DNA sequence: AACGCCCACAACCGCCGGTGG
DNA sequence: GCCACCGGCGGTTGTGGGCGT
C-alpha cells in the first residue's frame, strides 16, 4: 500500500504550469525521453513532482494531442462508448487517439452529460429517465441488464484492444508466426505481445455477439423474469461471451449474468454463484482480436453461424446487420437539435423519448429488439472501425 | 465599473494494480 | 510472500475567464 510520497515533498511547486516550465519539460523529454518520472523533475530542473510532470506531459504537452472543439463524430464516439464502458475514460480515449482521457472526461462532465440530462436522458444508463417508470413489462429492465452486462464485458474488450494496439506500436509486428489454433483464451494471451493475425480466424466470437445483438439471448430470456430475486426480479441474461465455443458444440451457455444493482453476478447453471469475472472475460479475447482487425460486420462475407434464441444455429450469410439508427444515434440527433452549434434551440427531448421506442409500454417487443439490436450494432461497428488507423480520424 | 455567478478546463488527490527487489 | 516503488486511472478541486446584473 505504499503510497508515493513524491508530492508530499515540501518546496515543490503546484498549480498552473508556466511556459518556462513547459519548455523545460518538453526540452528534456524530447532529448532524453521521460524515463523515470520521479527522477525527471530534478534532471529537467523543475520544481515539480514527477506525477505532476507526467500529467502535464500526457494531458497537455504531448505532441500527438489534438486540442480544441470536439467534432460531432467525436461526440458520437464518446456517447456511444460511454454507453458501453461507463466512466472508463482511458478506454474511451483509446478510440479517440488524439484526445486524452482527461479531456474526454472534462468534455463529458461539462457538455455531454448536461446535454443528455437536459434531454431527459440518464447520462449513466443512457436511457430516458422516465423509462424506469414504464418498465413494468420487464423489457426496460432487461435492456438495462443488457446494457450493464455489455458495459462490464466490453470494458475488458477495451483494455485488450488497447493492449493490442500498444503492442502493435511497440514491436512493428513483422512476424507471421501466430496461428490461432489454440483455445480461445490462450490465443490472445499468447498473441498479444508478439503479433496480430492478419486475417480473421475467430469468427465464432463475433458470431456470439452478433447473435446477441440479433436478440437471440434476449429473446430467449423473455418472460423469464421471475426466477431471480436479486435486483428486483430481473430476468436472466446469459452472457454471450461465456459461450465462445458455443457454436462449436451447441452447448447451452454455461454462465448466467443476473442484473444487480451495480454489477453483474455470474451464476453457474448449477446455481452456484461463481463471481469469476475472468471466466466470462476470457471468451472476449477472440472477440477483441476480431474487432481489432477492423472488419466491418455488415460487409463481411465471412460465414457466420448465428445462435438464435432457441439455440439452433442459424446461417446468417445474408448478414442482417443493417441500420445505424440506434438509440444513441437518436440521442445524437436530438442532441444535434439542441446543440448550440445547431440552428434551433433545445428540442425538448422529444427525439430522445421517441428514440426509446419501447417507452410507451405497448408491449411491442419487436420495436424493443430492433432498438437494442441497432443500438449495439452501432456500437459494435464503432468498435470495429476505430483502431488507430481508423478512417474515422 | 464592480460584483457575483457560472462554466470550462487544467491540475491535483487518492487509490489501485503491476512489478521488481 | 512482503514491501516499496511506479505509473495509471477516475474523481474532485482550483482557477481564470465570460457573462449578467
From TrEMBL:
Compositional bias ranges of the Acidic residues kind: 313-322
PROSITE patterns assigned: HTH_MYB, MYB_LIKE
Alphabetical UniProt keywords: Developmental protein, DNA-binding, Nucleus, Repeat, Transcription, Transcription regulation
Xref: SUPFAM superfamilies: Homeodomain-like (SSF46689)
Record's compositionally biased regions (Low complexity): 176-189
Gly residues compositional bias, start-end: 349-364
Localization: Nucleus
Biased composition (Polar residues): 132-145, 239-250
Pfam (any one): Myb_DNA-binding
Domain HTH myb-type intervals: 9-61, 62-116
UniProt keyword Electron transport present: no
Name this polypeptide is given: Uncharacterized protein
Organism from which the protein derives: Arachis hypogaea (Peanut)
Amino acid at each position: 500500500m505504499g503510497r508515493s510520497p513524491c508530492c508530499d515533498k515540501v518546496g515543490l511547486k503546484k498549480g498552473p504550469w508556466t511556459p518556462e516550465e513547459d519548455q523545460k519539460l518538453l526540452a528534456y523529454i524530447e532529448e532524453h525521453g521521460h524515463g523515470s518520472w520521479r527522477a525527471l523533475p530534478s534532471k529537467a530542473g523543475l520544481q515539480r513532482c514527477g506525477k505532476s510532470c507526467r500529467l502535464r506531459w500526457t494531458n497537455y504537452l504531448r505532441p500527438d494531442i489534438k486540442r480544441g472543439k470536439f467534432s460531432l463524430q467525436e461526440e458520437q464516439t464518446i456517447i456511444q462508448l460511454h454507453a458501453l464502458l461507463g466512466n472508463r475514460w482511458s478506454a474511451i480515449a483509446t478510440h479517440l487517439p488524439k484526445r486524452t482521457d482527461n479531456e474526454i472526461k472534462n468534455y463529458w462532465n461539462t457538455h455531454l452529460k448536461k446535454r443528455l440530462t437536459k434531454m431527459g436522458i440518464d447520462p449513466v444508463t443512457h436511457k430516458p429517465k422516465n423509462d424506469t417508470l414504464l418498465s413494468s413489462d420487464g423489457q426496460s429492465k432487461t435492456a438495462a441488464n443488457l446494457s450493464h452486462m455489455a458495459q462490464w464485458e466490453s470494458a475488458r474488450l477495451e483494455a485488450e484492444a488497447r493492449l493490442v494496439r500498444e503492442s502493435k506500436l511497440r514491436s512493428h509486428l513483422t512476424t507471421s508466426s501466430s496461428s490461432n489454433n489454440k483455445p480461445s483464451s490462450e490465443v490472445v494471451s499468447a498473441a498479444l505481445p508478439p503479433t496480430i493475425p492478419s486475417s480473421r480466424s475467430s469468427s465464432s466470437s463475433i458470431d456470439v455477439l452478433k447473435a446477441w445483438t440479433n436478440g437471440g439471448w434476449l429473446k430467449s430470456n423473455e418472460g423469464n423474469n421471475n426466477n431471480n430475486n436479486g435486483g428486483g426480479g430481473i430476468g436472466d441474461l446469459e452472457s454471450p461471451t461465456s459461450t465462445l465455443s458455443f457454436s462449436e458444440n451447441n452447448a447451452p451457455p454455461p454462465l448466467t449474468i443476473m442484473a444487480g444493482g451495480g454489477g453483474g453476478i455470474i451464476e453457474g447453471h448449477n446455481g452456484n454463484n461463481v463471481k469469476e469475472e475472468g471466466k466470462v472475460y476470457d471468451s472476449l479475447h477472440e472477440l477483441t482480436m476480431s474487432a481489432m482487425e477492423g472488419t466491418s460486420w455488415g460487409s463481411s462475407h465471412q460465414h457466420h453461424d448465428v445462435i438464435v434464441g432457441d439455440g439452433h444455429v442459424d446461417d446468417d450469410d445474408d448478414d442482417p446487420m443493417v441500420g445505424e439508427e440506434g438509440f444513441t444515434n437518436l440521442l445524437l440527433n436530438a442532441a444535434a437539435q439542441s446543440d448550440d452549434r445547431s440552428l434551433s434551440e433545445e428540442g425538448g427531448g422529444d427525439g430522445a423519448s421517441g428514440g426509446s421506442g419501447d417507452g410507451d409500454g405497448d408491449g411491442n417487443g419487436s420495436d424493443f429488439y430492433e432498438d437494442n439490436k441497432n443500438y449495439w450494432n452501432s456500437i459494435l461497428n464503432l468498435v470495429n472501425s476505430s483502431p488507430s488507423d481508423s478512417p474515422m480520424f
